């Protein structure tokens, strides 16, 4: 994930959208869902949100 910005101290900062995405990933990992499955779920969610914004 690309940070929203980087500080002079080298710290990486992320916006609220990126943090929410990470939280969803962590919640799906907790019961043992694999990363490929999580990637599919996130891709479907993204495709669905793009379709709803077009309609």
Draw up the topology in text.
Blueprint: E1 5-6, E2 12-13, H1 16-29, H2 35-54
Antiparallel strand pairs: 1-2
Characteristics:
55 residues; mainly alpha; elongated
Specify the structural class: mainly alpha
Q: Major sheet: size, sense and barrel closure?
A: 2 strands, antiparallel
Shape field: elongated
Whole-number mean pLDDT: 86
Number of DSSP-assigned strands: 2
* Rg for CA atoms: 14 Å
Number of helical segments with 4 or more residues: 2
Distance between the termini: 29 Å
Element-level helix/strand string: EEHH
Main-sheet strand order equals 1-2
Low-pLDDT parts are none
What is the beta-strand fraction? 5-15%
What portion of residues is helical? Answer: 55-70%
Structure description:
The mean pLDDT is 86. Helix content is 62%, strand content 7%. The termini are far apart. A two-stranded antiparallel sheet has the order 1-2. The longest helix is centred in the last third of the chain and has 20 residues, at 35-54. The chain has 2 helices and 2 strands, in the order ββαα. The radius of gyration is 14 Å and the shape is elongated. The protein is mostly helical and 55 residues long.
């Amino acid at each position: 994930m690309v940070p929203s910005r980087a500080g002079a101290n080298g710290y990486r900062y992320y916006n609220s959208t990126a943090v929410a995405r990470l939280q969803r990933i962590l919640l799906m990992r907790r019961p043992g869902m694999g990363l490929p499955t999580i990637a599919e779920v996130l891709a479907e969610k993204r495709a669905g949100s793009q379709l709803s914004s077009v309609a």
